[in-house]
């Protein structure tokens, strides 16, 4: 009988193959892989705009405007925000220009115009910022009665964000 003897050979060969592949038990060696990372505080500040619309020097009331800019920082960052004096400072205030003509204005942190964004670089402190995009509202005021000639007036104010 050919079949039973072949079966025994295959069966014996399989047992030998299992012993040869697994071999004697090896001693296991282990070590630890240290995994680290550093997250540095970083921020991005995005430009914004403020449009006063039309201004009439004969108006008895100031002209108000509202705008905003935004920033996004690494979570937990402490920062300061400040607004520069603009490209056309007038004494301790800001001014928009149309050629040589000027139109004075002020910027505020609140709608009631009580907290002015200083022109001297004085900063607003923001502690423990979230990681989501933050919008900062900016309120503007052009005082009534300025004798500026007709024209299109503009200014550019630098937004400075420092990570503390």
Tag the structure with descriptive keywords.
164 residues, 5-stranded antiparallel sheet, rod-shaped, 3-stranded antiparallel sheet, Immunoglobulin-like, mainly beta
Shape: rod-shaped
Model regions low in confidence, pLDDT < 50 over at least 5 residues: 12-20
Counting H and I runs of at least 4 residues, what is the number of helices? Answer: 1
Biggest β-sheet, characterized? 5 strands, antiparallel
Order of helices and strands: HEEEEEEEE
Rounded radius of gyration (Å): 36 Å
**CATH topology, anyone?**
Immunoglobulin-like
First-residue to last-residue Cα separation: 91 Å
Kindly state the number of beta strands. 8
Helix and strand layout, with pairings?
Layout: H1 2-22, E1 43-51, E2 63-73, E3 79-83, E4 94-98, E5 101-108, E6 124-126, E7 134-142, E8 159-163
Characterize the structure shown.
There is one protein chain. The protein is mainly beta and 164 residues long. The chain has a single domain (43-163), classed as Fimbrial-type adhesion domain (Immunoglobulin-like). Helix content is 13%, strand content 34%. It has one helix and eight strands. The protein has one helix at 2-22; strands at 43-51, 63-73, 79-83, 94-98, 101-108, 124-126, 134-142, 159-163. It has a five-stranded antiparallel β-sheet, with no helix packed on it. A three-stranded antiparallel β-sheet has the order 6-3-8, with no helix packed on it. Strand 4 (94-98) and strand 5 form a beta hairpin. The radius of gyration is 36 Å and the shape is rod-shaped. The protein starts with a helix and ends with a strand. The relative contact order is 0.24.
């Amino acid at each position: 009988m050919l079949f039973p003897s072949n079966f025994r050979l295959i069966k014996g060969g399989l047992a030998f193959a299992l012993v040869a592949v697994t071999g004697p038990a090896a001693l296991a060696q282990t070590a630890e892989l240290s995994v680290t990372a550093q997250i540095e505080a970083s921020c991005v500040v995005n430009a914004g705009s403020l449009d006063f619309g039309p201004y009439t020097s004969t108006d008895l009331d100031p002209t108000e405007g509202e705008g905003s800019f935004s920033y996004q920082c690494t979570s937990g960052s402490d920062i300061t925000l400040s607004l520069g004096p603009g490209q056309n400072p007038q004494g301790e205030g800001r001014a928009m220009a149309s050629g040589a003509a000027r139109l004075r204005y002020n910027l505020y942190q609140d709608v009631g115009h009580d907290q002015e964004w200083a022109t001297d670089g004085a900063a607003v402190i923001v502690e423990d910022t979230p990681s989501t995009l933050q919008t900062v509202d900016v309120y503007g005021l052009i005082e009534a009665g300025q004798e500026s000639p007709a024209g299109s007036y503009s200014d550019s104010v630098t937004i400075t964000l420092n990570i503390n």
